């Protein structure tokens, strides 16, 4: 019996050695004119079956995703050749040794890191936004190889040459109605140890230049990094647009024309004589972790909540004649923007007069998508005595699941490693909500590979960023300041299960007393992400009308709270 066991172990060892010997040697060379500008970063290696586009653009949570492996590079010496590590973590296949032989389109991509000496004493290496919104696949200065078709065999070596660089972003130009600003934030610059900036796209009301003594309310439209002010067009739709344009998300043709028509319709309303006059801003607050900051103060990201509320917004109001008081500011947005709208209202209750949070990211961490951070032990699996089941991460309106929470996180792990550097969704939640770890990077809420939850980090999240819990905990003092200001909308088949946290939050809000919250929570029947409160229109239309759909409710707030000298007819104050 012992001989049989030894024979099995020896055979397994031989098999393992043979497998390692069969693996190829993959070398990555960086062109000399590009290599002199890099030191640290993340090297990604892609394999794809899709011949229609570059592999870097084929990575997704869906079943037809490309394959990626990632490794950290430190202190790169120009002229040296990088040997890609065979044990680098990959998604969806975790190990190169398990990649099937065959023909692939292969590409190497290098994400550049910069060194930050933060005010908290930590030195961290992160990818900096370059005006594109912290999107690694399109960050100016990141470098990559042209796609190469190879016949992948486990014993065949190959080499890739990185000789391409992503060009700088072209900044949008000012127009009569849309202005673009960029300002240095003293608060953020002090935190990050270098100059840091906030930006915004500002939509000015009709007649702004003709009425220099008029001052206007401010609408803050929160969302992901906007390249320019969206949904506003001063000319009719392009007549040459093809009707064959197809939106896979909404399953309709001609969606580009629909979007342009909606943008032009908004312009026509904006300049009409009886339309209310106000300022709308879309904020740019990309940072080394993500395309925006979640508009709150964070140990890892810095005091973005204070910087936006006390630096950026007053600057805009001074520059463009905003009224400049809390009763004349409103918040709205969807998804990330929905969470930000509610969070800003909760954390700065006197500075804003109402929020309209559509399909918000999890606002109750007992339903952090499909995870209960306070009771579950693992984020990826539901464990039983004899069976464990993967937690779903994305579904359609019929409940059909297309990806799992584990898949989403393993994709991020391959892109950014264990230091929360992917620039993707779960990593930014961790960067915003977590305390700083001993290494200077966000302390993990769960082990990125196994999914095991850290209850101490979960408790920190609860006390500092669980919006439902914070409102309930502090309602005695917070409630009077939030009365009539909290409005939440979500589809009951949200693709990311965000409605579950809304249900729990509504349950709390409906039992509030002294005062009753006196706002609104509504659900879209079978509506997916991101339903924003109009049951009479399909989601693909209502999502284009954020800037007009809450105006009646905002008007009600003004009637209840604006001072006597506020002109309720056109929403302005005239100052002599």
TrEMBL record:
The organism's place on the tree of life at top rank: Bacteria
Signal peptide interval: 1-21
Keywords: Signal
Classification via InterPro entries: AB_hydrolase_fold, Esterase-like, Mycobacterial_A85_antigen
Keyword Signal: yes
Pfam families: Esterase
Protein name: Putative esterase
Organism of provenance: Algoriphagus halophilus
